[in-house]
Design goal:
Layout lengths: L6 H27 L13 H49 L13 H17 L2 E2 L2 E2 L14 H6 L7 H13 L7 E4 L5 E6 L9 E7 L5 E6 L4 E5 L10 E7 L5 E9 L8 E3 L5 H37 L4 E3 L37 E4 L2 E6 L7 E3 L4 H12 L6 E3 L2 E5 L8 E3 L2 H6 L14 E3 L10 E3 L22 E5 L2 E4 L7 H15 L9 H15 L9 H37 L3 H26 L3 H4 L1
Parallel strand pairs: 9-10, 13-14
Antiparallel strand pairs: 1-2, 3-4, 4-7, 5-8, 6-7, 8-9, 11-16, 12-13, 12-17, 15-16, 18-19, 20-21
Helix pairs in contact: 1-12, 2-3, 2-9, 2-10, 2-11, 3-9, 5-6, 6-9, 6-10, 9-10
């Protein structure tokens, strides 16, 4: 008879004890860490959901960092834009004041303030966030705007705005100070006024002339160069009869000279004396009065308009094709506007000659065809407006800055000067829009007076090679907002870029530079009139006009980006809580449950030890 050993039972019991000890160790680790396991294999069947949730939580964390960084940039940009608004209001208040006292430098206090504010504005536009220039578009590592001193005064090799403005003033005034007009008295009874050169962009342009002078013959304005004449025919006009001459200035504005025949002594301002005994002297008096009035107009309003136009030549570096100012065929003629029709019977608010059915305009290879009515697609009705045509052209070129009509001049804007090419089968009608040369191409300012001496120049030329470039940032096609983009959610991106050459910013910088740079003789005969005319124009330039971009519009754009990010943050906060709950449920250990399991295992372990102890004391005698 044999007796089986109890070692087998003991080994099984020992394994159970070791297993209980391991479970106690695992549970103790769970209790201390709060996690089911220290590796994925021990997490259980729900760990796949936890892994996916962790990936989404990681994305949310990345979006949160992006939103934080973008908000810093937007807040800085908004602060800068608000500063620009404050600068605009300060300069506008000064330019609108009536005080025109000139200091020894030929400037008013308001102009001195504008010069200082120009420097401040340049500093604001060069705002950085870290190493990023906020107003340089995609060129974030490039200073947005040239230093203020170089913009105004130039460098050793490049002319600044002060030089460009002085050249333009000389070209607009002409050598005789008459605004490039030539005044003669062909016969003892007549007066004639003519533009000096046909097609010149400088000086006063004769727009319209009317007369109520009894017995007088009015001829023109007509011819090339444009001229008009008044012949009194040896007859004295009646007291109160009037001659009115309207001029277009370089900035597109119009001014009118009214001269009234008068027998009063002394002769009132704005009048010419009727010589009751010698009618020929009356013609001489008219000639003298007209000469005086033209000189005053040229040396006041023309000088101011010249400064404003010089600002546009220097600062407005958007690619564009600019037509010469033209009138409609209404009675009396008036500058064309966006509402002017592309054809129509005289007299009407339409161009002449106009377009007819079958005519075409080709823009960058795309053809627009004129039809009598019912236009669709790339068609235009012959009775459509100029604005409709410009909208069609803009759609083809893809310009980020709409084309405009101002002061009778049509400006076709484009983001790519090299590509603009416009032709028409009806060159006469295209000429009626102010584009006499074909193909129509874009010029790239800055523009400079084309020859020396400036007083006799007849052209403007591209001055890029020898003129300071004020804007240094990105200048490519597309919206400035799209130059800075960030993904803030799985399917959400925001655009928050800005450029210092945006229309609202550029117009403000330009107006302030013009006002702060212009100076005149402190004691000059026309100095007060020059500053007064300039102040009026600067005030208007700093006043928001319908259809123009405003700095507040830029602020609204970036505020929308902030609102988008705020909404994304709200969604992500909610998603983060849900995803974290999934992770916690899959990976976290309940302290209460773990404690209960530990207690149960401890009891089991104690019982196992008791059995082991009893078995250890078992002998053959006790067994039997």
């Amino acid at each position: 008879m044999s007796i089986s050993s109890i070692n087998y039972s003991s080994s099984v019991l020992g394994a159970q004890i070791r297993n209980i000890n391991q479970q106690l160790t695992d549970l103790s680790t769970q209790l201390s860490t709060g996690k089911l396991s220290q590796n994925y294999s021990g997490m259980g069947t729900n760990e796949g959901f936890a892994i996916a949730s962790r990936a989404q939580l990681s994305n949310i964390a990345a979006y949160t960092d992006t939103i934080t960084n973008v908000n810093v940039n937007i807040n800085l940009a908004n602060t800068a834009l608000q500063s620009l608004t404050t600068i605009r209001n300060t300069v506008q208040t000064g330019s609108a004041s009536t005080a025109q006292d000139l200091n020894v430098n030929g400037q008013t206090v308001a102009q001195n303030t504008a010069a200082a504010q120009f420097g401040s504005m340049v500093g604001v536009l060069n705002t950085q966030s870290g190493n990023r220039y906020l107003f340089s578009g995609t060129a974030v590592n490039t200073q947005s705007v040239t230093d203020a001193g170089d913009i105004i005064n130039g460098t050793t090799t490049q002319a600044g705005f002060k030089t460009v403005m002085a050249e333009r003033q000389a070209a607009d005034l002409g050598a005789n100070g008459m605004g490039r007009l030539v005044q003669t008295q062909p016969t003892p009874s007549s007066v004639q006024v003519s533009e000096d050169v046909a097609g010149s962009p400088f000086g006063l342009k004769i727009k319209a002339v009317s007369s109520t002078l009894t017995g007088a013959t009015l001829t023109g304005p007509s011819g090339s160069p444009v001229s008009f004449s008044v012949d009194l025919n040896g007859v004295n006009p009646n007291n109160g009869d009037k001659l009115s001459v309207q001029f277009t200035l370089p900035d597109g504005t119009t001014e009118q000279i009214d001269l009234t025949a008068s027998t009063a002594t002394p002769t009132p301002a704005g009048s010419f004396a009727i010589d009751t005994t010698t009618p020929a002297n009356t013609a001489t008096n008219l000639n003298t009065a007209l000469n005086t009035a033209i000189l005053k107009l040229a040396n006041t309003s023309l000088v101011a308009a010249s400064a404003v136009t010089a600002g546009d030549n220097f600062f407005n570096t958007a690619s564009s094709a600019i037509g010469t100012p033209v009138n409609n065929q209404a009675a009396p003629p008036a500058p064309v506007t966006g509402a002017t029709a592309l054809s129509g019977a005289s007299p009407s608010d339409s161009i002449s000659p106009g377009f007819v059915a079958g005519d075409t305009i080709t823009v960058n290879g795309t053809t627009l065809t004129f039809v009598s009515s019912g236009a669709t697609g790339n068609q235009l009705n012959v009775t459509d407006s100029i604005q409709t045509l410009l909208s069609k052209i803009d759609a083809i070129t893809g310009t980020s800055k709409p084309s405009t009509v101002h002061g009778g001049a049509i400006t076709i804007n484009t983001d790519d000067a090299a590509s603009l090419n416009i032709t028409s089968s009806n060159t006469g009608a295209l000429g009626s829009l102010g584009f006499s040369a074909t193909p129509v191409t874009a010029t790239q300012p800055p523009l400079r007076v084309g020859s020396s001496p400036a007083s006799s120049a007849t052209t403007l030329v591209n001055g890029s090679a020898n003129t300071v470039k004020w804007y240094l940032g990105n200048d490519g096609p597309g919206s400035p907002r799209s130059t800075a983009m960030a993904r803030v959610d799985d399917s959400v991106t925001v655009q928050y870029g800005a450029q210092a050459n945006e229309d609202a910013i550029r117009r403000q910088l330009q107006a302030i530079a013009v006002f702060g740079t212009f100076s005149t003789s402190p004691t000059g005969q026309y100095s007060g009139g020059q500053v007064s005319a300039l102040s009026l124009r600067v005030t208007q330039a700093l006043t928001q006009q319908p259809g123009q971009q405003r700095i507040e519009d830029i602020q609204t754009d970036i505020a929308m980006a902030q609102n988008t990010m705020k909404d994304a943050t709200t969604r992500q906060t909610q998603a983060k809580a849900q995803l974290q709950s999934i992770v916690d449920q899959a990976e976290s250990a309940s302290p209460d449950q773990v404690a209960s399991e530990i207690l149960a295992l401890q009891n089991a372990l104690q019982a196992s030890y008791q059995v082991t102890s009893n078995l250890a004391q078992l002998s053959l005698v006790k067994f039997l």
